[in-house]
Recover the amino acids of this structure.
């Protein structure tokens, strides 16, 4: 086979020609022995391939007569065009829908990430969320999160408001509890779609206040409003095996909300000694969690607890009583006892009652007639039972102390306190759990802030932790019996089904 060039002959390295080459005719096979090209015009003179020759214009613009194979080439080009059109159309569709109508933007030159929402369904959800009766197609919206703490007046100045209007808005919002924009606050702007973004409605959701949000209607004579968000309650059933010595750590280890700590201690303060939590103690619990905008914000109420503490099983159930929540044992008796388990809500036992304790400062053996609860200075000290204040005084070794008489049998003393609660003087009646003083470190040979709690029975100091205290649980009232029994029977089955 010979290949003749119209022009200068330039030999090229033999190469394979792809089937759909834009320069060569498709019928030429890849295993063709050799071909020459000068990158200009090619005429094939092989007798075997003459019938497949492509039309090549000569230098004078004249064309050779088309021969067979041209129709097949055009079919190939059409197929390629169809395929490319399909890919281009798919790419355009993907680009238009990849963010579902959302794109990132910047507002006011700041670093806030702003979401421009054009998708109709998302716009309608925002209008519903902020209780706005606006024409969906006439408005656009931007949402941003504040990255700085700004005075409300300075923030409003960015909306091109007049100074008297800013003063009026700041004053009215001040009465509603909004005076600044803080880091993390969510801000939503509604404005009419057009060349100029003129804000019509402004909504602010404070990061620190999950329950409220604020709205400013610039389209309605600067109307300022405050709203309460809808709270959704979700029932939660959980269990926890304690591996340490604190309920606080166990709650976090078991991935529960921290508000359960205070609620559980308040309910079980007569039944569980939280200063003697041990590894292996465990509990099951049924409670309601609070959600706002699908985010967990707290714990609403506890329905039932089954607590295993130092070998004892304590089961309690809650029932509503005239708007308040009361808890009773599975026998229907009140959990309230004559005495609390400790005079502090939070702390630790640093020293126990002992007939011959080695003093940490003097090193001498000496009778220690109380239980020391270590806690930060200023921690509230509670009266463990109803009683009457017998007096307050200062002694060399006990420091500031207060004494409360509960009945003819029991008296309690609280030593080393930093200060007394207001009104604590002789003859003052106190209730169980009432704050009577604050933890300190007054007196001689004190190693740190704590309260030495002394429990006196018939005039003699005894070990409070080992004393068998009188019970005070009252039977549930008749008007609550039916509701309590129904709740107890149902919740008992649920507790049994909760896995450890």
């Amino acid at each position: 086979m010979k290949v003749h060039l119209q022009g200068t002959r330039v030999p090229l390295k033999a190469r394979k020609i792809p089937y759909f080459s834009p320069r060569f005719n498709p019928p030429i096979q890849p295993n063709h022995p050799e071909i020459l090209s000068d990158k200009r015009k090619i005429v094939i003179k092989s007798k075997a391939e003459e019938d497949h020759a492509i039309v090549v214009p000569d230098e004078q613009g004249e064309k050779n007569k088309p021969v067979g194979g041209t129709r097949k080439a055009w079919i190939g080009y059409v197929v390629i065009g169809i395929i490319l059109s399909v890919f281009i159309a798919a790419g355009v569709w993907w680009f238009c829908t990849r963010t579902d109508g959302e794109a990132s933007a910047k507002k006011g030159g700041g670093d806030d990430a702003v979401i421009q929402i054009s998708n109709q369904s998302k716009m309608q959800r925002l209008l519903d969320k902020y209780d706005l009766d606006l024409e969906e197609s006439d408005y656009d919206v931007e949402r941003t999160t504040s990255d700085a703490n700004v005075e409300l007046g300075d923030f409003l100045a960015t909306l091109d408001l007049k100074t008297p209007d800013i003063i009026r808005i700041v004053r009215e919002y001040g009465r509603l509890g909004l005076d600044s924009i803080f880091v993390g606050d969510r801000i939503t702007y509604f404005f009419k779609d057009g060349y100029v973004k003129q804000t019509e409605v402004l909504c602010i959701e404070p990061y620190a206040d999950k329950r409220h949000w604020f709205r400013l209607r610039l389209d309605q004579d600067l109307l300022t409003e405050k709203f309460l968000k809808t709270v959704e309650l979700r029932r939660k059933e959980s269990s926890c095996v304690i591996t340490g010595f604190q309920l606080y750590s166990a709650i976090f280890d078991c991935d529960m909300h921290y508000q359960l700590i205070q609620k559980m201690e308040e309910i079980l303060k007569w039944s569980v000694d939280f200063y003697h939590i041990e590894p292996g103690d465990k509990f099951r619990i049924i409670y309601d969690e609070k959600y706002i905008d699908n985010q967990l914000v707290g714990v609403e109420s506890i329905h039932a607890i089954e607590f295993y503490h130092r070998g004892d099983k304590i089961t309690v159930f809650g029932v509503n009583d005239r708007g308040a929540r009361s808890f009773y044992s599975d026998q229907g008796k009140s959990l309230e006892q004559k005495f609390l388990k400790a005079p502090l809500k939070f702390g630790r036992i640093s020293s126990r009652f002992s007939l011959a304790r080695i003093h940490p400062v003097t090193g001498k053996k000496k009778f220690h007639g109380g239980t020391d609860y270590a806690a930060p200075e200023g921690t509230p000290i509670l009266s463990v039972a109803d009683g009457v204040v017998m007096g307050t005084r200062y002694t060399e070794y006990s420091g500031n102390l207060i004494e409360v008489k509960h009945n003819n049998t029991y008296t309690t003393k609280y030593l080393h306190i930093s200060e007394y609660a207001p009104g604590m003087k002789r003859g003052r009646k106190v209730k169980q759990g009432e704050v009577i003083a604050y933890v300190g470190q007054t007196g001689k040979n004190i190693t740190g802030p704590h309260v030495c709690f002394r429990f006196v029975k018939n005039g003699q100091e005894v070990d409070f932790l080992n004393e068998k205290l009188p019970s005070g649980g009252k039977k549930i009232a008749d008007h609550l019996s039916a509701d309590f029994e129904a709740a107890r029977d149902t919740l008992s089955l649920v507790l049994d089904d909760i896995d450890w």
